[in-house]
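The authors assume throughout that readers already know how a fold can be written as discrete tokens. In essence, backbone conformation is discretised, so a fold becomes a row of integers matching the chain in length. A single example would do more here than another paragraph of explanation. For illustration, here is how one protein appears when written out as sequence plus structure tokens:

…
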Amino acid sequence: MKILKNNSPFFYGIFTFFWIALGIFILPIVTAFFQWVWLPWSVLMYDAKGQLIVDIWNEYGYWKTYTGGMNIPLIQSIIQIEDGEYFSHWWVDIPSKMAAFYDNIQSRRIVRGWSTITEQWIKNEFFPYAKRTWLQKWREATLAFLMSLYFSKEEILSKYVNSLYLGNRIYWIQAASEVYFHKKDITQLTESEISFLIALIRYPWIQSLQEKNFQEYLNRVKIRLWVTTKDTTTYYFSRHKDINLVSHFSQRITHLMNKFCTQNNSHEIWNYLQNWIEKLHEQCDKRDKILFTPLMYDLQKKIESYWVGILRSIQDKNVQSFAAYVFAPKTHKILVYIGNTNDNSIDGAQIDMIQQPRSVGSILKPFLYLFALESWAEIDSFVLDGEKQYDNLSGTGIFLPQNYNLKEYGPISLKYALASSLNLASVRLTEFLWLENVYHFFEKIGFRFPRSATYYGYGFVLGAPELTLEEVALGYTALTTLKNKTYFTQEKNRFLLAQILSNPYNRRYGFWVNSILNNSYSIPVKTGTSTDFRDNWALGYTNDFIFWVWVWNTNRSSMRGVTWVTGAWPIWHFMAEELGSLFYADRGEGWVVVPDWIEQYSHCLDSRCFRTELSFTKTGKKEKSSIIENTFFEQDFFISLSDEEKKRWNIQ
């Protein structure tokens, strides 16, 4: 059937005049009875390779918008059954209403409806749960008249087919075609399948397809549509099978989309939303969203599978779950998002731990040492790793830090102190740089802390602040060297920091030279374990990726002897190798470029230079102190020293 517009000047003139004359009286009446049923977004989500990773129904049901043409067999059949004179009348069909009334009285039951397609759309869209009273029908007819003034026949028909409920909590013809018949192209529906869907419009709440009323109406539909072919279709009154392979990721996107489409500051939200999606197929006036994301689901699935093996090996250690996060600083896209793998979280509900604040331990230490490099320290400059009491700035006593192995190493170079994550040296460095200055440096990078520097005291640099995994990962973008992007930190200092964290030899005091921290690619890495073994972390970064693994207990109980060595690190190492094979396999070891203003030289480890190591300097200064020979010179120290400390550590 060809769709025609009612272009009669007479009808347009009459109803336009009627609208102008009575609109001010009709609108208040309609508004008083008007109900808009707002439903949350339905989301279809694809990963970076185009794989469908999310297709779920929400608490209201499952739907998909049909956006094709109206001249297809299914829609023409719907017009023939529901409103045969749709293109001939304005918005109500008085003769059809009278005929339907007569047939229903004669049959003593409802055998024929009398609402037009426009009225049915108004009912489905605005009054889906209202009782079918005469007053309600008057509301729908009045609103149908108003809508007819604003929308064409084609527009109303499109809205109507995307408002139909077709049983089993399935909405709209596109969704019903896919669920019941597994056909995405509704033009391929058979005559029997079309009859079945039209029958469901009248009887969507049936419990069985064998119900008498449904079967009788289905047969009448087939007769009116002249269905003569033998019915070979097998009908399954099935539900839509949810696909949600990335539950926490999809929850974040749905939440952001709702904010974007309902709040006034949508531009700001959209800028943030760009981290999560590559392209938005539909706009806010559509109830279903088709999103194309940068997520690397195949990699995420591999990581989760690898975790199963790790968990099996430490299943008796009271370990509950892990989270993983991969962020691309160049594009600001999220590539891996695993918020929780524990099915028995708080109150039986999974918590997205990427958004939950926790104490992050030693993960923040690199920014302290970056501040030292910004303050003209060299990576071979010396600090002091010795026990010392510090005044607690909050006025609650003294602060006495200790290293995790309860040892003190005395004079030690900056690079060894950071790479081995020594607490005593870090606190002493903070004291020299002034805690308030360190705190403000972190803020300048982009961190936001809920408490003041005085509240945290010197525990600030040891991980006292509670931050989310995502906040810290995004903070690490300040350590990458991005093209056409200038941070306040100098490129040479970011390069030196990366060298400290990627050189296995620098870790020998805390993790040994040949530790499992080593991998096939030169990647800066920082680990951490909370003092009570509640959490452990491993975080690495390059110019292309920032990736973090976090193993923890949701209920904050202690794991039994699980550190980063057996918890977070094996998973992080697996991630590093996978990312390396995907992106760095053709680069070799030369993909890290030394800045022109950095001097590379062989650093002597003893007075006769029998033992050397590769090192870097930005000022040309080369320290003479030797840890191996236990000889130290005050001019090589970045921090100030007291006479007592010089005497104790034999510093000349």
Residues 1-6, 31-37, 344-348 have pLDDT under 50 and may be disordered. The longest strand covers residues 321-328. The longest helix spans residues 9-33.
